[in-house]
Amino acid sequence: MTSTKPTAAEETASESAPAAALHTGISDPRTLIMRNLRQSGIYVAFVAIIALFAVLTDGVLLSPGNITNIVLQYSYILVLAIGMVIVIIAGHIDLSVGSVVALTGAVSAVLVIQQDYPWWAGMVAAVAVGVAVGAWHGFWVAYVGIPAFIVTLAGMLLFRGLTLQVLDNISLSPFPSEYQKVANGFLNGLIGGQGYDAFTLLIAAIAVGGYAVFGFRTRLARIRYQQPVESFPLFVTKVLLVGAVVMYFAWQLAHARGLPIVLIILAVLVLAYGLVTQRTVFGRQVYAIGGNLSAAMLSGVKVKKVNFWIFVNMGFLAGVAGVIYSSRANGAQPAAGNMFELDAIAAAFIGGAAVAGGVGTVQGAVVGGLIMAVMSNGMQLMGVDQSTQSVVKGLVLLVAVAFDIYNKRRAGATR
Questions:
Q1: What span, in angstroms and rounded, lies between the C-alpha atoms of 98 and 173?
Q2: What global pTM score does this model have?
Q3: CATH number of 28-188+257-413
Q4: How big is the CA angle at 148 (ends 164 and 266), to the nearest 5 degrees?
């Protein structure tokens, strides 16, 4: 028999085959451009929108005070967007989060303002109510089998009505100063700085470094498993661009009132949920359910259990958003949270989530939310009336979804 043992040259070629196949798969310039555009286009769009409104507002948009206001005014929408993108990745939707924000804030206000409970007890109660609401939704969706659209539409009406009952159709205020600091407080002066807060810059630098390391490790892992990645120059450009934007914003915050406490909360949530969705079994199962439900079930994924916890998590984040919003407003109102669910859904889709599920990232949803925030704030500074603002935001959402569908059709045509 003749030997079939490969030569050294053949072994070398075989070892390099995965990498070669990887690069061959994206060698077509048009395919490469479309893939890179999908992965990094949201960051380019974010910077472009900031630049546009900076010019249109004569630089007011990027003033230290206004950047601080953007963070404070839209933080609760970004918290909701984190939970909403996970729901959408799994192929569901949640229309009730605005009502849940109102209900959790109302419960906290009744306990703290009317019944003189400690401020922290109100926060714990608000989050607990949010978790209970999420479990309610999860039960009907996961174990009864009612579509999430119907369950959460019913929840939107149900929990708005409960909010009116809890508040007895009146507004409650004010909260204690400790409660208000969650959404209105700042950390500054911890390590000094001449005319600026050095602590804010230090935290921002650490965040940028962590983002770069995490992105590089993720890139290496994808290459190792022969998954397509963006070109290395584009990856470096994206990291530098994100780093420059973050440090610029940090510089402006450092020259205003320092680091907002709510920004720290948001950063912790983004980091934690980024790790959960990208590095845990639960995260992979969420993507599997949204990408191909039948395949996920055949692979042994406990679909009912995962769907249940997806909605519990959404309720938890709605409770957190309720605390932040009531802290920011220094009270609870029957109409609180109105249309918040649409802002959160828009943020997820603008950030790259797919309508059919299976696609999306926490970071993308947050950037999508920031795009909406910058657009809203910029148009307010320009004196644009509310009706025109709604038209513009609606068109942006429509274009984002159309872009996703266009990409899917192109991908199907090239197979």
A1: 20
A2: 0.84
A3: 1.10.3470
A4: 70
Across 98-112, 183-197, 224-238, 265-279, least confident range: 183-197
Q: Map out the domains of the chain as residue ranges.
A: 28-188+257-413
Q: What are phi and psi of 172, to 5 degrees?
A: -120, 135
Cβ atoms of 251 and 196 closer than 8 Å: yes
Query: Please, how many CA atoms are within 13 Å of residue 55, restricted to the half-sphere of its CB?
Result: 5
Q: Is 230 helix (H, G, I), strand (E, B) or coil?
A: coil
Q: Cα dihedral angle (182, 185, 191, 192), rounded to 10 degrees?
A: 170
pLDDT of the residue at 18: 37
Q: What is the pLDDT of residue 96?
A: 95
Mean pLDDT of 346-352: 89
DSSP per-residue letters across 137-197: HHIIIIII---HHHHHHHHHHHHHHHHHHHHTTS-B-PPPHHHHHHHH-EE--SS--SSS-
What is the C-alpha to C-alpha distance for residues 305 and 255, in angstroms, rounded to an integer? 47
| Per-residue tokens: 215 | 């992105």
The residue among 48, 68, 58, 70 whose CA lies nearest residue 374 is: 70
The helix/strand/coil state of 384 is coil
